[in-house]
Amino acid sequence: MAEPGEISVPTGSKPPTMAGIVIVGAAMIIVLSVIEVGRRYGIPVPIPFLLIYGTVAIAAGLYGLRAGMLAATMAALFVIYSALVGFGPAALTGGVVQVLAGIAIAYIVGFAIGRNHDAMQSLITELKGREVMLADVREQLAHELEKSTDQLAGATTEVAKLRSRISSATRHSPAGVVVVDKERNIETVNEAAARMFGLVSLVQVRTDIDDFLAGLPVLIDGERAGGDHEGPLKAALLDGTTSDNVEIRINRTDGETRWLRGFFAPIRNDAGGIDGATIIFIDVTDKRRTAEKLQELSRRLIRVQEDERQYIARELHDEIGQHLTGIKMHLHAAAHQPENTELLDASIEKIDELMDVARNLSLELRPSVLDDLGLVAALRWYISRQALPGKCEISFDSEAATAELSPEAVTASFRIVQEAVTNAIRHSGADMISVRLYNEQDDFCVEIIDNGSGYTQSEHGENTANNGGFGLLFMRERVQELNGSLSIVTSPGNGTKVLARMPIQVAG
User: Fold this and answer.
1) Residue 284 CB burial class (10 angstroms; 0-12, 13-18, ≥19)
2) pLDDT tens digit string along 25-60?
3) Fewer CB within 10 Å, N or C, the chain?
4) Residue 70 and residue 44 in one domain
């Protein structure tokens, strides 16, 4: 098989076969014999060379140039010999010129017809070669086409699978995805993006994103989106610039404000041109609110620490300082009046009072009974100290097994009761408070109920009427650290109920 692009072109006719030579020779012998026999027996042969020419022409036409030359040579030899020697009674008549002319004509006829035959054979051979080559090329092209078709079909299948996977991933992605073309028309938008923007249904494809953004109060990096806003989307479409961590604020039609983090990237074709842009939105509202709450908690913690330091400093200065000053004065006077034992007795009494103040201050910070005797005993001691006969009655009831509680759960429970009782006495004006510990299913519960003035709760359940909100926030944080929950039910004039629940397997 010839390689594609190669063409084999024959340069002449093939040599006559042995059968062709025999046929040409036999034909010439027959023709010449007819002429000779006719001449020998006096049969007139008016144009003997016509038979010779015809035979030469037939030989050349059938078998090519070499066969024609062979026939012409045989005829020439016959004519020359006949002219010189003769065959039979009467030799060929004619002059030398005529004989030579006849021979020349025979050669010319053989050459012309044979050369034409060879040229035709060469052309036929070339055409057959080209036909074979074309057949090979067709076969090869058919094979390559079939192979390319199979590869294309496989690639098409893979592309379809990839598109299906990308579409499924985009559709179920928690991140909002919007794809726009270079004319800023929306091509794709998933359900997450629609939810982030507060839309009931998906945006219609081919909607201009500027018209879409113009319908919502959207701020991108502090600037109003839509219209001629020179923002990250325009930078992606015009300059191919990728922008990430773009802050987006949306005031949705339902009244809620959401904060998004946007990522803008161009979509490029194989030639490197920009065909559109992809926008990915991540809702960071909860994260932002958590960060704000942590910042607020940090500020409040600093304030509480300062309040505690001021309280301790005030107690040290007002109580302990005064007692130490009194002791110093009594001892100084006793040094000058050694016989006056009353001064020493007064100093000892002052020292006892100072020890009580120091003990009370220590108990306020961390009662030792909590570590020595446990939660129930510590709460009974604390409640007995806080109750004001005739002004505020505090009842305590424990139905829960607290011996197996962890130190963290014991501390959290004590601080919750301490904070709730303090708020009820100082801020709500309650004259009746009940404290109860009990188990409910798998939870350890601490319940504090007062009949005070109550207060108005904010969105996050904090006290907006007074500084008790700081303590409530810390109570909530303590319970959440133990995977529990804190509920506060209150309203102006209806008292307050605080209920802390902690899983026993965590609290214990």
Assistant:
1) middle
2) 666 667 667 766 666 666 655 445 555 666 667 776
3) N
4) yes
Contact between 268 and 237 (Cβ < 8 Å): no
State whether residue 397 is helix, strand or coil: strand
Radius of gyration of the chain (CA): 60
Q: Which two tokens stand for residue 351?
A: 């020292």
Position 448 confidence tier, pLDDT thresholds 50, 70, 90: very high
Token pair for residue 240? 């191919």
Kindly give, in sequence order, each residue whose CB lies less than 8 Å from that of residue 105, ignoring residues fewer than 6 positions away.
Answer: 49, 53
In a domain, 161, yes or no: no
Q: Residues with Cβ < 8 Å from 380, sequence gap 6 or more?
A: 396
Does 293 fall in a domain?
no
DSSP element (H, E) containing 250:
strand 243-251
Other Cβ atoms within 10 Å of 413 Cβ, number: 28
In our burial notation (b when 16+ CB lie closer than 10 A, e otherwise), range 361-385 reads eebeeebebbeeeebbebbeebbee
* CATH assignment of the domain containing 448: 3.30.565.10
State the Cα–Cα distance between residues 93 and 320, nearest whole angstrom. Answer: 173
Structural domains counted in the chain: 4
Strands in 328-468 per DSSP E: 393-398, 432-440, 443-450
Average pLDDT on 369-393 reads 83
Q: What is the DSSP annotation of 49-75?
A: HHHHHHHHHHHHHHH-HHHHHHHHHHH
**CATH code: domain of residue 233:** 3.30.450.20
With tokens 């004001």, the residue in question is 388
| Each residue's pLDDT tens digit, 80-131 | 666 665 544 444 445 566 666 666 776 777 777 777 777 777 888 888 888 8
- The sign of the dihedral angle between the CA atoms of 422, 423, 424, 425 is positive
Same domain for 393 and 491?
A: yes
> DSSP secondary structure string, 433-493?
EEEEEEEETTEEEEEEEE-S----B-TTS-BSSSTHHHHHHHHHHHHHHTT-EEEEEE-TT
Rounded distance between C-alpha atoms, residue 40 and residue 22, angstroms: 26
Six-digit token pair at 395?
């009842």
Distances (CA, A) of 312 to 104, 280, 350, 392, 422: 147, 53, 20, 26, 17
Among 218, 252, 283, identify where a domain stops.
283
Question: SS3 letters for 109-172?
Answer: HHHHHHHHHHHHHHHHHHHHHHHHHHHHHHHHHHHHHHHHHHHHHHHHHHHHHHHHHHHHHHHH
* Same-domain status, 343 and 460: no
State how beta strands 393-398 and 274-283 pair. unpaired
- Say whether both 199 and 330 belong to one domain: no
Mean pLDDT of the chain: 74
d(CA 26, CA 108): 21
Cα gap 310→194, rounded to integer Å:
52
